[in-house]
């Protein structure tokens, strides 16, 4: 079990996040602070494994607090929790494990805890390089933010651009689909149609027989072209567990 600190200048926000984190069996002790200064006082007495920090707090902001914690002997993993998308670039410059937007959804918070656990070497990504995710700069509504490649469910070709689809939104990037197909193959992405590249770890259902083969990724049902069907079958078979002889 991991110990965490929540720092937010709004008490209801602290209480809500503490409640949600308390539902996760991986979470142990939860410390609460309503200012950056209070958070520092707590952490000098009680080192924690992860800190969930609001960005906009009077006095010490979440970013100020993260910089201060960099000097601690026991440096916690950082997750920023905010309603402001514009801080994502700075957050990842500070090596944040994740960047959560309010209101926080339970499923999304669960993924953040998983990332914290993996960053501590307690999950599948025990190698330090493997634990550091590939980040992608995207623009939405004139704001540049960073998203993790492993949050991308599928990619849709749109001319010279590609649209990256996540659970929360979609983002247009000026990269040809052919380049992403080549660069992301080792990360589990496979071309299933001239217009679609899918992340195999996020595939929930496949129907490869009949006249119209399809593959389901999240809430989207995507077509599979006959030309690319053999390659998809091969990748799916390689990912299927087999009994040892």
UniProtKB/TrEMBL annotation:
<feature type="domain" description="Response regulatory">
    <location>
        <begin position="3"/>
        <end position="117"/>
    </location>
</feature>
<dbReference type="InterPro" id="IPR011006">
    <property type="entry name" value="CheY-like_superfamily"/>
</dbReference>
<dbReference type="InterPro" id="IPR007492">
    <property type="entry name" value="LytTR_DNA-bd_dom"/>
</dbReference>
<keyword id="KW-0597">Phosphoprotein</keyword>
<feature type="modified residue" description="4-aspartylphosphate">
    <location>
        <position position="54"/>
    </location>
</feature>
<dbReference type="InterPro" id="IPR046947">
    <property type="entry name" value="LytR-like"/>
</dbReference>
<feature type="domain" description="HTH LytTR-type">
    <location>
        <begin position="136"/>
        <end position="238"/>
    </location>
</feature>
<dbReference type="Pfam" id="PF00072">
    <property type="entry name" value="Response_reg"/>
</dbReference>
<dbReference type="Pfam" id="PF04397">
    <property type="entry name" value="LytTR"/>
</dbReference>
<dbReference type="GO" id="GO:0003677">
    <property type="term" value="F:DNA binding"/>
</dbReference>
<dbReference type="GO" id="GO:0000156">
    <property type="term" value="F:phosphorelay response regulator activity"/>
</dbReference>
<protein>
    <submittedName>
        <fullName>Response regulator</fullName>
    </submittedName>
</protein>
<dbReference type="InterPro" id="IPR001789">
    <property type="entry name" value="Sig_transdc_resp-reg_receiver"/>
</dbReference>
């Amino acid at each position: 079990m991991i110990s965490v600190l929540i720092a937010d200048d709004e008490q209801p926000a602290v209480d809500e996040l503490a409640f949600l984190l308390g539902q996760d069996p991986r979470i142990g002790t939860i410390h609460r602070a309503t200012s950056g200064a209070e958070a520092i006082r707590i952490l000098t007495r009680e080192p924690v494994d992860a800190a969930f920090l609001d960005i906009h707090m009077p006095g010490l902001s979440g970013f100020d607090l993260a910089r201060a914690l960099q000097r601690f002997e026991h440096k916690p993993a950082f997750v920023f929790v905010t309603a402001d998308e514009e801080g994502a670039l700075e957050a990842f410059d500070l090596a944040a494990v994740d960047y959560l937007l309010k209101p926080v959804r339970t499923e999304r918070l669960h993924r953040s805890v998983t990332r914290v656990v993996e960053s501590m070497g307690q999950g599948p990504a025990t190698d330090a390089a493997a634990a550091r995710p590939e980040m992608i700069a995207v623009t939405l509504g004139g704001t540049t933010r960073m998203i993790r490649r492993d949050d991308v469910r599928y990619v849709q070709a749109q001319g010279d651009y590609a649209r990256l689809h996540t659970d929360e939104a979609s983002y247009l990037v000026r990269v040809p689909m052919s380049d992403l197909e080549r660069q992301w193959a080792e990360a589990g992405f496979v071309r299933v149609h001239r217009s679609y590249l899918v992340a195999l770890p996020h595939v929930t259902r496949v129907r490869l027989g009949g006249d119209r083969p399809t593959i389901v990724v999240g809430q989207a049902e995507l077509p599979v072209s006959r030309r690319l069907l053999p390659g998809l079958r091969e990748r799916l078979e390689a990912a299927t567990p087999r009994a040892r002889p």
